[in-house]
Specification:
Radius of gyration: 28 Å
Oligomer: single chain
Largest sheet: 11 strands, antiparallel
Shape: elongated
Number of strands: 36
Bound molecules: iron/sulfur cluster
Strand order of the largest sheet: 18-17-16-15-12-13-14-11-28-32-31
Strand content: 25-35%
Distance between the termini: 45 Å
Structural class: alpha+beta
Helix content: 10-25%
Number of helices: 9
């Protein structure tokens, strides 16, 4: 259970207690007990990292990608002897807030090149998550506060392309509010990052259960489909399939409601005018904004009766018997009408050929999922654990000499100052995130570069150790493959 290859050491002692100096909390830990974060323990007077250190496989067949070991039953225990092993920072331990070298600085040969991977579990006090929720249903006004256990942990941010976005965590919620706000924020972020379900409430909006890689549950209703596109896009996609089968189609959408006879796609097919009158604000022909208030009904609006988005038909154009399909952007809602002698739409059973077109919309909708991206930054002391001149690490990352991964998963590094990165938590091994009660999240980060480049940027060369040396003093485990993506539907 030990990772005592780490340079982390017990500092002061108090009787038989030892002090952990792996984070600013500086716990004094009794023999047989663990510290406040349950990550370090006093094992017969020795400070140990409780969780095993995670390694991954570097593939040949997948272009050198780093992946979890696929056949856990065939592991021979010779975990770190092959060149195909990648040492992650999960379970590696922390060096914060001081200047100590990273817990593991491991050399290996990859494709004939001497490489080094610097691994550390970073302590992220300013981190956050960005959540993409595939749903048309209205979660709440942009900038509304998002809460967990009643505490403010973030806000609703801009909705984009049929998904609603939340921005959670960050320095102000973790450290700038009450103690409870910081703790609850930290717990919610850690659970989301570790793939657990978290119930969130939006001020003046919905309750939503979010779990990375799973469908969102909005006000108790699991979301099934992500819309095929906006109402206008749906008209463009399916106009030809409606031609000859119906006189008018309205695709109801909170963002852009589409009207076939007026839309450019309808014009190209010579679909005649129908005298339809839409509510809302016309943007361009056949494309209407704000036909209704947002909500959890048809197409992300609050309506349950689609006729409420229509005004009276123009009697100079409309004719009795005219056929009209109204459908939502997911195909979840649909209704068929025919105009009576008074030009009033009367609902009738959906003809089979139109039922097929509704099913085609549904078929083209992708499964609705929640996506959780962890957003962290390699701060001063974390970079000091890599090199004695931290700005050189930043430059090396920006010059693509140093690759950054998080638990072996590829990250997106933001342009501009610092090393600010985002990572899809579903690409990381299970249980990759921890916490310390400062409060802050603990997350793995690895820097991989040529050994010669590492020396040039002022790396801690005295601490570089060969991969095979980890066998002797470190308990390791291979990562389980990430859970399969769910949310598919027929
Ligand atoms: S909270 Fe954890 S890492 Fe921090 S000092 Fe205590 S045991 Fe060590």
């Amino acid at each position: 259970m030990t990772n005592d290859g780490s340079p982390i050491s017990a500092g002061a002692t108090d009787g038989d207690k030892i002090r952990c100096d792996a984070c600013p909390v500086m716990c004094y830990i009794k023999p047989g007990a663990s510290g406040a974060c349950d990550r370090y323990a006093n094992d017969a007077g020795q400070l140990v990292r409780v969780d095993p250190h995670v390694v991954l496989q570097r593939t040949v067949s997948q272009g050198g990608q780093i992946v979890p070991f696929q056949k856990s039953g065939e592991w021979d225990g010779k975990l770190v002897q092959g060149r195909d092993v990648f040492v992650t920072a999960i379970g590696a331990g922390t060096t914060y807030p001081d200047y100590k070298p990273a817990p593991f600085i491991v050399s290996s040969e990859v494709d004939g090149v001497d490489m080094v991977t610097v691994v550390t579990e970073g302590i992220f006090s300013y981190c956050g998550v960005k959540v993409k929720i595939d749903t048309d249903r209205f979660l709440g006004p942009e900038t509304s506060t998002v809460r967990a256990e009643g505490e403010a942990i973030g806000h609703v941010t801009t909705s984009e392309y049929g998904s609603q976005m939340l921005s959670l965590g960050g320095v102000h919620h973790l450290t700038g509010g009450s103690k409870k706000e910081g703790r609850v924020t930290c717990d919610a972020l850690m659970d989301l990052c570790n793939g657990k379900a978290v119930e969130l409430t939006v001020d003046n909006g919905a309750t939503v259960v979010v779990q990375a890689g799973k469908p969102p549950i909005v006000n108790g209703v699991p979301e099934v489909r992500m819309r095929v596109g906006c109402g206008s896009a749906a008209i463009g996609m399916f106009a030809k399939q409606w031609q000859g089968k119906v006189d008018e189609v309205v695709v109801v959408d909170d963002h852009i409601t589409g009207v076939l006879s007026e839309h450019q796609a309808g014009k190209l097919l010579d679909i005649p005018d129908t005298g339809i009158k839409m509510k809302g604000r016309r943007s361009t022909p056949g494309r209407y904004f704000q036909v209704a208030e947002p909500g959890t009904g048809w197409g992300g609006t609050q309506i349950s009766d689609p006729l409420t988005v229509l005004g009276p038909f123009n009697p100079k154009v409309a004719k009795p018997g005219m056929r009209m399909l109204m459908v939502s952007t997911t195909g979840e809602h649909s209704a068929y009408f025919e105009l009576d002698e008074a030009l009033q739409p009367i609902e009738k059973p959906l003809p089979p050929e139109l039922q097929q077109s509704v099913e085609r919309i549904q078929e083209n909708c992708e499964p609705a999922l929640c996506t959780v991206l962890f957003m962290g930054g390699a701060g001063g002391s974390l970079r000091a654990g890599v090199t004695d001149n931290p700005v050189r690490l930043t430059r090396s990352v920006k010059e693509s000499l140093t690759s950054v991964t998080s638990g072996g998963a590829p990250v997106y590094v933001w342009p501009g100052g610092g090393i600010t990165f985002m990572v899809d938590v579903t690409q990381m091994p299970a249980g990759a995130f921890g916490y310390v009660p400062t409060p802050a999240l603990v997350a793995p980060i690895e820097f991989t570069l040529r050994l010669s480049d590492y020396a040039a940027l002022g790396g801690h060369m005295d601490y570089v150790r060969p991969l095979a040396s980890l066998n002797a003093d470190t308990e390791m485990r291979q990562a389980a493959p990430p859970p399969p993506k769910s949310g598919t539907h027929s």
